[in-house]
Amino acid sequence: MGVTIDLNAIRENKRRIETLGRPVFAVVKNNAYNLGMEPVVTTLYEEGVRHFMVTTLEEAREVRTYAPDARVLVMNPVYEWQDVQEQKLDVAIGSYDWLVAQRSQLDGVRLHLKLDVGMNRFGAKTFEEALAIVAFCQDEGLDLVGLCTHFPLADADNAEIEHSIQVERFADWSTRLIERHAFEVVHAANSAATLQADARLAHCTHVRVGIFLYGYSSVEPVEWLVPAFRWETEVIAVHQIEAGAHVGYGTGYTAPAQERIAVLSVGYGDGLMRARRHLPAHINDRAFPFISNIFMSHSFLRVDETVQVGDVVELYGNTTKIDDVTRTGHANNSEQLCARSWRVPHRFEGGNVCTPPTNQFV
Ligand SMILES: *Cc1c(COP(=O)(O)O)cnc(C)c1O
């Protein structure tokens, strides 16, 4: 009962992604997509991953605890420097102006030049800006180790042409920058772009993947991914209701006929997204539809006479995967993982997650 996170699935996904040709630069932002920073980073570290990316400095500090000698890259613009220097974190350069303003803090800090190919989040917006950043780093003797971008349209529908233009922009800028500077790591592809195996990204050293590690695909179904997440709950009450009766709060649902309903002790307060009701839940391998809405602490299924109080309900698992709900168009897969609350009991399979790591900073 509750949530089960399968660390062996994460191990297996890491291995399978790497058979595509490049080592993984693991994206573990937001508590490793809300699957748990410690177990996920510890597992990937045991599997040999030595490159991790997060969004914030706080997340990077946490990753450092579990991955003592790994590269840990902070993507957000950094303005506090003590931990970066003490814990040897890598930092992304968001713009030329940021670089110049932060110059006094940057000696010995490993820097990654980010190219903005169209997302308008961070990164050099023109080739000229990128060139100025490289020149500044060289003149100042800064440790410019990485070159990267992020493709915001890699998993968008109907944006293939625009995505291709962005890949072309990165390929063009990055190949010209590589002629001027020796970068240790070049990383661009997220999960969806990894699948495209675009020859224009042949000079990249790593794939910077998140959702694939956890076993889900934002694009077409990927048969070889192993889902890492299951969620079960149980039936806590069963009722017979009459035609015309409402169920739960409001009048949004009116029973068309006499029916048998089951009450589940799970709702959006546990992070079960309302989007989940677009597909049935399974009890003893039989599918039953959600009715009415998903409320804060409860939700409802229309069931048959086989269902009893105490029966196990599969919310996510073998029959309904995160990806299946994503394909209904009502919530994306990272969003469903991130919504889930840790107030639900959790169990980890396939890992030695209780052993405290030996914390040694590089
Ligand atoms: C989240 C993120 C990724 C990973 O994206 P997935 O689609 O989960 O593989 C890669 N790079 C950056 C900069 C990100 O923010």
From TrEMBL:
Organism equals Exiguobacterium aurantiacum
Origin superkingdom: Bacteria
SMART domains listed in its UniProt record: Ala_racemase_C (SM01005)
Which GO molecular function, any one, fits this protein according to its record? Answer: pyridoxal phosphate binding
One GO cellular component this record assigns the protein to is: cytosol
Instruction: Tell me where in this chain the Alanine racemase C-terminal domain is found.
Output: 228-349
Q: Which residues carry this modification: N6-(pyridoxal phosphate)lysine?
A: 29
Name this polypeptide is given:
Alanine racemase 2
Q: What is its EC number?
A: 5.1.1.1
- Tell me which Gene3D superfamilies the record gives: Alanine racemase, Lyase, Ornithine Decarboxylase, Chain A, domain 1
User: Which of UniProt's keywords are assigned here?
Assistant: Isomerase, Pyridoxal phosphate
Kindly list the biological process annotations in GO that this record carries. D-alanine biosynthetic process; peptidoglycan biosynthetic process
Where substrate binds, per the record, is at: 121, 296
Which cofactors, by name? pyridoxal 5'-phosphate
The cross-references to InterPro entries, in alphabetical order and at most eight, read: Ala_racemase, Ala_racemase/Decarboxylase_C, Ala_racemase_C, Ala_racemase_N, PLP-binding_barrel
